[in-house]
Description:
This protein is of the alpha+beta class and 279 residues long.
Amino acid sequence: xxxxxxxxxxxxxxxxxxxxxxxxxxxxxxxxxxxxxxxxxxxxxxxxxxxxxxxxxxxxxxxxxxxxxxxxxxxxxxxxxxxxxxxxxxxxxxxxxxxxxxxxxxxxxxxxxxxxxxxxxxxxxxxxxxxxxxxxxxxxxxxxxxxxxxxxxxxxxxxxxxxxxxxxxxxxxxxxxxxxxxxxxxxxxxxxxxxxxxxxxxxxxxxxxxxxxxxxxxxxxxxxxxxxxxxxxxxxxxxxxxxxxxxxxxxxxxxxxxxxxxxxxxxxxxxxxxxxxxx
Length: 279
């Protein structure tokens, strides 16, 4: 997750531990030991003003070992963090869902990992700056060669407006600074482009695809995309740490569609536990 300044836009969001069947463990996890460790570690972090609150989901195989809330969702209301009800902005955790949805298309034969992405884009076309085309494989591996200077991705939650980006603006944002496949560099814009491809192929939006192909089948019934107006009260509030060491409320920044694929999912911890269990 990338923070802007000192803003902790999702508090701690969801802390998740995955212990899969491929990992050798000498014995089953002792829930009491894990909870004692979490209470001490996260409790001290809250006490030292690292964040006002957090939710924790620990999953072993397909079983939830620990699901717990710590601290508060809001420094003014003092509402406790609830792992079943509190929605959190999880940032780049959403990239995994975007990647899974794209790979579902690959498995179905509807897109190819190595075809020019412009074959699937109807909203706009990626500039042909270099002879080598950008492919889905490049986007998934963060090797597409786009600029890291992205300026038109967010707006203040209080400003309203449409999250859709005009096609001519999309062309200006997806600036290619090097041929694809040469350099691996963390790429929010590239995964955002995967989200646009999902919407164009399915004839809908990235958010609708994730809802229909991942959230509903997994049973993530509380999870939403973005920050719906009718669910604002369910969210952990945005907080900024002042130079005095005190917290103050801030406003969330809303992702435009060109960055939705890079992380626009807002789950509860219990929903994230369900997601982890099916991986």
